[in-house]
Protein backbone atom coordinates (compact mmCIF):
# COMPACT_ATOMS: atom_id res chain seq x y z
CA UNK A 1 0.00 0.00 0.00
CA UNK A 2 1.37 3.41 -1.01
CA UNK A 3 2.11 5.88 1.73
CA UNK A 4 0.24 9.12 1.08
CA UNK A 5 2.25 12.32 0.77
CA UNK A 6 0.19 15.40 1.60
CA UNK A 7 1.22 18.84 0.41
CA UNK A 8 -0.49 21.92 1.82
CA UNK A 9 -0.85 25.01 -0.37
CA UNK A 10 -2.06 28.58 0.08
CA UNK A 11 -3.97 30.18 -2.81
CA UNK A 12 -5.78 33.54 -3.05
CA UNK A 13 -9.45 34.32 -2.81
CA UNK A 14 -10.86 34.48 -6.32
CA UNK A 15 -11.94 31.67 -8.68
CA UNK A 16 -8.98 32.63 -10.88
CA UNK A 17 -6.75 32.06 -7.85
CA UNK A 18 -7.96 28.75 -6.47
CA UNK A 19 -10.08 26.86 -9.04
CA UNK A 20 -7.22 26.02 -11.47
CA UNK A 21 -4.98 24.94 -8.59
CA UNK A 22 -7.65 22.61 -7.22
CA UNK A 23 -8.23 21.19 -10.70
CA UNK A 24 -4.53 20.67 -11.46
CA UNK A 25 -4.01 19.10 -8.02
CA UNK A 26 -6.75 16.55 -8.69
CA UNK A 27 -5.26 15.79 -12.11
CA UNK A 28 -1.74 15.47 -10.68
CA UNK A 29 -3.01 13.06 -8.01
CA UNK A 30 -4.49 10.84 -10.71
CA UNK A 31 -1.03 10.56 -12.24
CA UNK A 32 0.59 10.25 -8.79
CA UNK A 33 -2.01 8.53 -6.55
CA UNK A 34 0.33 8.67 -3.56
CA UNK A 35 0.16 12.50 -3.57
CA UNK A 36 -2.64 14.53 -2.01
CA UNK A 37 -2.61 18.34 -2.33
CA UNK A 38 -4.86 20.50 -0.14
CA UNK A 39 -5.41 24.25 -0.57
CA UNK A 40 -6.29 27.05 1.84
CA UNK A 41 -7.24 30.54 0.68
CA UNK A 42 -6.15 34.04 1.71
CA UNK A 43 -7.53 37.41 0.66
CA UNK A 44 -6.18 39.38 -2.29
CA UNK A 45 -4.74 42.00 0.07
CA UNK A 46 -3.04 39.30 2.14
CA UNK A 47 -1.60 37.88 -1.08
CA UNK A 48 0.05 41.24 -1.75
CA UNK A 49 1.02 42.19 1.79
CA UNK A 50 1.36 39.16 4.08
CA UNK A 51 5.03 38.35 4.81
CA UNK A 52 6.22 34.98 3.52
CA UNK A 53 7.59 34.31 7.01
CA UNK A 54 3.98 33.91 8.20
CA UNK A 55 3.33 31.15 5.66
CA UNK A 56 6.38 28.94 5.24
CA UNK A 57 5.87 27.02 8.48
CA UNK A 58 2.35 25.93 7.53
CA UNK A 59 2.46 25.50 3.78
CA UNK A 60 4.54 23.58 1.25
CA UNK A 61 3.21 25.41 -1.82
CA UNK A 62 2.84 29.19 -1.79
CA UNK A 63 1.29 31.49 -4.38
CA UNK A 64 3.45 34.58 -4.40
CA UNK A 65 3.96 38.05 -5.90
CA UNK A 66 7.31 38.58 -7.66
CA UNK A 67 8.49 41.62 -5.60
CA UNK A 68 9.00 39.22 -2.66
CA UNK A 69 11.96 37.53 -4.35
CA UNK A 70 14.64 39.69 -2.70
CA UNK A 71 13.18 39.04 0.74
CA UNK A 72 12.89 35.32 0.03
CA UNK A 73 16.49 35.22 -1.16
CA UNK A 74 17.94 37.15 1.79
CA UNK A 75 16.12 35.11 4.43
CA UNK A 76 16.18 31.67 2.76
CA UNK A 77 12.38 31.45 2.79
CA UNK A 78 11.83 29.58 -0.46
CA UNK A 79 13.62 26.74 -2.19
CA UNK A 80 15.47 27.62 -5.42
CA UNK A 81 13.90 25.66 -8.24
CA UNK A 82 17.04 25.45 -10.36
CA UNK A 83 18.18 22.25 -8.63
CA UNK A 84 14.70 20.71 -8.34
CA UNK A 85 13.40 21.05 -11.91
CA UNK A 86 15.39 19.82 -14.95
CA UNK A 87 17.21 22.62 -16.76
CA UNK A 88 15.64 21.69 -20.11
CA UNK A 89 12.17 22.18 -18.56
CA UNK A 90 13.13 25.57 -17.19
CA UNK A 91 14.63 26.67 -20.50
CA UNK A 92 11.40 25.73 -22.24
CA UNK A 93 9.30 27.61 -19.69
CA UNK A 94 11.55 30.65 -20.06
CA UNK A 95 10.99 30.61 -23.83
CA UNK A 96 7.24 30.27 -23.25
CA UNK A 97 7.01 33.17 -20.78
CA UNK A 98 4.27 35.76 -21.19
CA UNK A 99 6.35 38.93 -21.29
CA UNK A 100 8.81 39.16 -18.36
CA UNK A 101 6.69 36.88 -16.11
CA UNK A 102 9.19 33.99 -15.91
CA UNK A 103 12.19 36.22 -15.28
CA UNK A 104 10.39 38.23 -12.59
CA UNK A 105 10.75 35.30 -10.16
CA UNK A 106 14.52 35.14 -10.63
CA UNK A 107 16.70 36.94 -8.10
CA UNK A 108 20.46 36.87 -7.66
CA UNK A 109 20.77 33.88 -9.97
CA UNK A 110 18.09 31.83 -8.24
CA UNK A 111 14.63 31.03 -9.57
CA UNK A 112 12.16 30.96 -6.68
CA UNK A 113 8.80 30.42 -8.41
CA UNK A 114 7.22 29.52 -11.73
CA UNK A 115 4.86 32.00 -13.35
CA UNK A 116 1.65 29.97 -13.48
CA UNK A 117 -0.47 33.14 -13.80
CA UNK A 118 0.31 36.27 -15.84
CA UNK A 119 -1.21 39.73 -15.48
CA UNK A 120 -0.57 43.44 -15.86
CA UNK A 121 -2.73 46.53 -15.66
CA UNK A 122 -5.03 46.54 -18.68
CA UNK A 123 -8.25 48.30 -19.63
CA UNK A 124 -11.75 46.85 -19.16
CA UNK A 125 -14.86 47.95 -20.99
CA UNK A 126 -18.46 47.11 -21.72
CA UNK A 127 -18.32 46.78 -25.47
CA UNK A 128 -22.12 46.85 -25.80
CA UNK A 129 -22.33 50.25 -24.08
CA UNK A 130 -19.28 51.67 -25.87
CA UNK A 131 -20.74 50.75 -29.29
CA UNK A 132 -24.21 52.04 -28.37
CA UNK A 133 -22.72 55.45 -27.49
CA UNK A 134 -20.41 55.52 -30.52
CA UNK A 135 -17.27 55.91 -28.40
CA UNK A 136 -13.69 54.88 -29.17
CA UNK A 137 -11.49 53.25 -26.53
CA UNK A 138 -8.58 55.63 -25.73
CA UNK A 139 -5.13 54.42 -26.77
CA UNK A 140 -3.13 57.16 -25.02
CA UNK A 141 -3.52 59.02 -21.72
CA UNK A 142 -4.15 62.23 -23.68
CA UNK A 143 -7.05 60.49 -25.43
CA UNK A 144 -8.30 59.29 -22.04
CA UNK A 145 -8.77 62.88 -20.84
CA UNK A 146 -10.83 63.60 -23.96
CA UNK A 147 -12.78 60.36 -23.49
CA UNK A 148 -14.13 61.50 -20.11
CA UNK A 149 -15.75 64.55 -21.72
CA UNK A 150 -17.69 62.46 -24.25
CA UNK A 151 -19.44 60.23 -21.72
CA UNK A 152 -23.09 61.05 -20.88
CA UNK A 153 -23.95 61.66 -17.22
CA UNK A 154 -25.76 58.31 -17.04
CA UNK A 155 -22.43 56.46 -17.29
CA UNK A 156 -19.10 56.54 -15.48
CA UNK A 157 -15.46 55.60 -15.79
CA UNK A 158 -14.01 53.84 -12.74
CA UNK A 159 -10.39 53.23 -11.81
CA UNK A 160 -9.38 51.04 -8.83
CA UNK A 161 -7.51 53.45 -6.58
CA UNK A 162 -7.57 51.83 -3.16
CA UNK A 163 -4.10 52.08 -1.64
CA UNK A 164 -2.68 48.94 -3.27
CA UNK A 165 -3.99 49.73 -6.74
CA UNK A 166 -3.23 53.44 -6.54
CA UNK A 167 0.38 52.41 -5.93
CA UNK A 168 0.40 50.26 -9.07
CA UNK A 169 -1.12 53.05 -11.16
CA UNK A 170 1.35 55.60 -9.79
CA UNK A 171 4.34 53.40 -10.66
CA UNK A 172 2.83 52.62 -14.07
CA UNK A 173 2.49 56.27 -15.08
CA UNK A 174 5.94 57.05 -13.66
CA UNK A 175 7.37 54.30 -15.88
CA UNK A 176 5.32 55.40 -18.89
CA UNK A 177 6.67 58.96 -18.61
CA UNK A 178 10.10 58.42 -17.06
CA UNK A 179 11.14 55.05 -18.47
CA UNK A 180 12.01 51.89 -16.55
CA UNK A 181 14.79 53.57 -14.56
CA UNK A 182 12.74 56.34 -12.94
CA UNK A 183 13.86 55.04 -9.53
CA UNK A 184 17.56 55.25 -8.70
CA UNK A 185 19.40 54.83 -5.38
CA UNK A 186 16.08 54.28 -3.59
CA UNK A 187 14.74 57.60 -4.81
CA UNK A 188 11.83 58.26 -7.17
CA UNK A 189 12.49 61.15 -9.53
CA UNK A 190 10.89 64.02 -7.62
CA UNK A 191 9.74 66.16 -10.53
CA UNK A 192 8.30 63.14 -12.30
CA UNK A 193 6.46 61.97 -9.17
CA UNK A 194 4.88 65.39 -8.64
CA UNK A 195 3.79 65.48 -12.29
CA UNK A 196 2.18 62.03 -12.01
CA UNK A 197 0.37 62.84 -8.75
CA UNK A 198 -0.97 66.05 -10.27
CA UNK A 199 -2.30 64.05 -13.21
CA UNK A 200 -3.94 61.49 -10.92
CA UNK A 201 -5.69 64.31 -9.07
CA UNK A 202 -7.07 65.58 -12.38
CA UNK A 203 -8.22 62.07 -13.32
CA UNK A 204 -10.06 61.73 -10.01
CA UNK A 205 -12.31 64.65 -10.91
CA UNK A 206 -13.81 62.61 -13.78
CA UNK A 207 -14.05 59.20 -12.13
CA UNK A 208 -16.82 57.43 -10.24
CA UNK A 209 -16.59 58.85 -6.72
CA UNK A 210 -16.09 55.37 -5.20
CA UNK A 211 -12.94 54.76 -7.28
CA UNK A 212 -10.64 55.89 -4.45
CA UNK A 213 -11.96 52.95 -2.36
CA UNK A 214 -12.25 50.19 -4.95
CA UNK A 215 -10.03 47.30 -6.04
CA UNK A 216 -10.27 45.66 -9.50
CA UNK A 217 -12.69 42.92 -8.46
CA UNK A 218 -15.15 45.43 -7.01
CA UNK A 219 -15.15 47.44 -10.24
CA UNK A 220 -15.39 44.38 -12.48
CA UNK A 221 -18.31 43.05 -10.44
CA UNK A 222 -20.11 46.38 -10.89
CA UNK A 223 -19.34 46.46 -14.61
CA UNK A 224 -20.59 42.91 -15.03
CA UNK A 225 -23.81 43.30 -13.05
CA UNK A 226 -24.88 46.91 -13.74
CA UNK A 227 -24.78 49.35 -16.65
CA UNK A 228 -23.34 52.46 -14.98
CA UNK A 229 -19.59 51.83 -15.38
CA UNK A 230 -18.61 51.39 -19.02
CA UNK A 231 -14.82 51.68 -18.87
CA UNK A 232 -11.83 51.29 -16.58
CA UNK A 233 -8.45 52.42 -17.98
CA UNK A 234 -6.06 50.69 -15.56
CA UNK A 235 -6.85 47.53 -13.61
CA UNK A 236 -5.49 44.02 -13.31
CA UNK A 237 -7.37 41.93 -15.85
CA UNK A 238 -9.41 38.85 -14.98
CA UNK A 239 -10.33 36.52 -17.83
CA UNK A 240 -13.30 35.24 -15.83
CA UNK A 241 -15.33 38.37 -16.63
CA UNK A 242 -14.64 38.01 -20.35
CA UNK A 243 -16.09 34.49 -20.43
CA UNK A 244 -19.70 34.13 -21.56
CA UNK A 245 -21.96 33.06 -18.71
CA UNK A 246 -19.62 34.04 -15.88
CA UNK A 247 -21.69 37.10 -14.99
CA UNK A 248 -24.77 38.96 -16.21
CA UNK A 249 -22.84 41.11 -18.69
CA UNK A 250 -19.64 40.42 -20.58
CA UNK A 251 -16.62 42.61 -19.82
CA UNK A 252 -13.95 42.85 -22.50
CA UNK A 253 -10.31 43.76 -22.00
CA UNK A 254 -7.65 45.59 -24.00
CA UNK A 255 -4.40 47.47 -23.61
CA UNK A 256 -4.33 50.40 -21.19
CA UNK A 257 -3.72 53.95 -22.40
CA UNK A 258 -0.01 54.67 -22.73
CA UNK A 259 2.49 57.42 -23.43
CA UNK A 260 3.27 56.88 -27.14
CA UNK A 261 6.74 58.38 -26.72
CA UNK A 262 8.07 55.68 -24.36
CA UNK A 263 8.00 51.90 -24.93
CA UNK A 264 6.51 50.94 -21.56
CA UNK A 265 2.98 49.67 -21.00
CA UNK A 266 1.92 49.04 -17.39
CA UNK A 267 3.10 47.36 -14.22
CA UNK A 268 3.51 43.57 -14.18
CA UNK A 269 1.36 41.51 -11.83
CA UNK A 270 0.61 37.81 -11.94
CA UNK A 271 1.20 34.91 -9.58
CA UNK A 272 4.14 32.58 -9.05
CA UNK A 273 4.01 29.15 -7.46
CA UNK A 274 6.83 28.58 -4.96
CA UNK A 275 8.02 25.95 -2.49
CA UNK A 276 8.50 26.71 1.21
CA UNK A 277 11.98 26.19 2.61
CA UNK A 278 10.30 24.00 5.25
CA UNK A 279 8.72 21.62 2.73
CA UNK A 280 9.50 17.99 3.60
CA UNK A 281 8.85 16.70 0.08
CA UNK A 282 10.52 19.25 -2.22
CA UNK A 283 10.91 16.85 -5.17
CA UNK A 284 7.18 16.10 -5.18
CA UNK A 285 6.30 19.78 -4.78
CA UNK A 286 8.63 20.69 -7.66
CA UNK A 287 7.11 18.01 -9.88
CA UNK A 288 3.65 19.49 -9.23
CA UNK A 289 4.77 23.07 -9.90
CA UNK A 290 6.42 21.99 -13.13
CA UNK A 291 3.24 20.15 -14.11
CA UNK A 292 1.11 23.25 -13.51
CA UNK A 293 3.47 25.54 -15.47
CA UNK A 294 3.95 23.32 -18.54
CA UNK A 295 2.23 24.40 -21.75
CA UNK A 296 -0.07 21.39 -22.03
CA UNK A 297 -1.52 21.97 -18.55
CA UNK A 298 -1.69 25.73 -18.91
CA UNK A 299 -3.52 25.76 -22.24
CA UNK A 300 -5.83 22.96 -21.15
CA UNK A 301 -7.05 22.21 -17.64
CA UNK A 302 -5.61 25.39 -16.08
CA UNK A 303 -7.38 27.83 -18.41
CA UNK A 304 -10.57 25.76 -18.66
CA UNK A 305 -10.95 25.97 -14.86
CA UNK A 306 -10.90 29.76 -14.71
CA UNK A 307 -7.14 30.25 -14.65
CA UNK A 308 -5.24 33.09 -16.29
CA UNK A 309 -2.16 31.24 -17.53
CA UNK A 310 1.44 32.39 -17.43
CA UNK A 311 2.46 30.32 -20.45
CA UNK A 312 2.58 31.95 -23.89
CA UNK A 313 1.36 28.80 -25.65
CA UNK A 314 -1.86 29.08 -23.65
CA UNK A 315 -2.18 32.79 -24.54
CA UNK A 316 -1.80 32.02 -28.23
CA UNK A 317 -4.27 29.13 -28.17
CA UNK A 318 -7.27 29.89 -30.42
CA UNK A 319 -9.67 27.88 -28.27
CA UNK A 320 -8.67 29.83 -25.17
CA UNK A 321 -9.05 33.14 -26.99
CA UNK A 322 -12.50 32.03 -28.13
CA UNK A 323 -13.39 31.03 -24.57
CA UNK A 324 -12.28 34.42 -23.22
CA UNK A 325 -13.42 36.68 -26.08
CA UNK A 326 -9.83 37.41 -27.16
CA UNK A 327 -8.67 38.53 -23.71
CA UNK A 328 -5.21 37.09 -24.42
CA UNK A 329 -4.76 38.39 -27.96
CA UNK A 330 -6.06 41.84 -26.98
CA UNK A 331 -3.68 42.33 -24.03
CA UNK A 332 -0.47 40.54 -25.08
CA UNK A 333 1.14 43.81 -26.20
CA UNK A 334 0.75 45.15 -22.66
CA UNK A 335 2.32 42.00 -21.22
CA UNK A 336 5.31 42.17 -23.55
CA UNK A 337 6.12 45.77 -22.59
CA UNK A 338 5.29 45.52 -18.88
CA UNK A 339 7.29 47.29 -16.17
CA UNK A 340 8.75 45.04 -13.45
CA UNK A 341 8.96 46.42 -9.92
CA UNK A 342 12.17 46.32 -7.86
CA UNK A 343 12.71 43.16 -5.80
CA UNK A 344 15.27 44.13 -3.17
CA UNK A 345 14.77 42.88 0.36
CA UNK A 346 12.85 45.84 1.81
CA UNK A 347 10.80 46.67 -1.28
CA UNK A 348 7.59 45.12 0.08
CA UNK A 349 7.80 47.11 3.27
CA UNK A 350 8.25 50.30 1.25
CA UNK A 351 5.47 49.28 -1.14
CA UNK A 352 2.92 48.72 1.64
CA UNK A 353 3.75 51.89 3.57
CA UNK A 354 4.23 53.97 0.42
CA UNK A 355 0.83 52.93 -0.91
CA UNK A 356 -0.87 54.11 2.29
CA UNK A 357 1.09 57.36 2.19
CA UNK A 358 0.01 58.08 -1.40
CA UNK A 359 -3.60 57.14 -0.72
CA UNK A 360 -3.80 59.31 2.38
CA UNK A 361 -2.28 62.17 0.39
CA UNK A 362 -4.88 61.96 -2.37
CA UNK A 363 -7.81 61.53 0.01
CA UNK A 364 -6.75 64.59 2.03
CA UNK A 365 -5.65 66.52 -1.09
CA UNK A 366 -2.16 67.10 0.29
CA UNK A 367 0.13 68.94 -2.13
CA UNK A 368 1.98 66.69 -4.56
CA UNK A 369 5.39 68.05 -3.63
CA UNK A 370 4.74 67.29 0.07
CA UNK A 371 3.63 63.75 -0.77
CA UNK A 372 6.73 63.14 -2.87
CA UNK A 373 9.03 64.53 -0.20
CA UNK A 374 7.52 62.17 2.40
CA UNK A 375 7.56 59.24 -0.03
CA UNK A 376 11.27 59.56 -0.81
CA UNK A 377 12.09 60.10 2.86
CA UNK A 378 10.25 56.85 3.58
CA UNK A 379 12.14 55.01 0.84
CA UNK A 380 15.48 56.25 2.15
CA UNK A 381 14.60 55.30 5.72
CA UNK A 382 13.76 51.73 4.66
Automatic annotation (TrEMBL):
Any single Gene Ontology cellular-component annotation: periplasmic space
Superkingdom per UniProt: Bacteria
Subcellular localization(s) per the UniProt record: Periplasm
Gene3D superfamilies: Periplasmic binding protein-like II (3.40.190.10)
Main location, first listed in the record: periplasm
InterPro entries named among the record's database cross-references: Bact_solute-bd_prot1, SBP
Keyword terms of this UniProt record: Cell membrane, Lipoprotein, Membrane, Palmitate, Signal, Sugar transport, Transport
Keyword Membrane: yes
Keyword Protease appears in the UniProt entry: no
Family, similarity comment: Belongs to the bacterial solute-binding protein 1 family.
Protein name per UniProt: Multiple sugar transport system substrate-binding protein
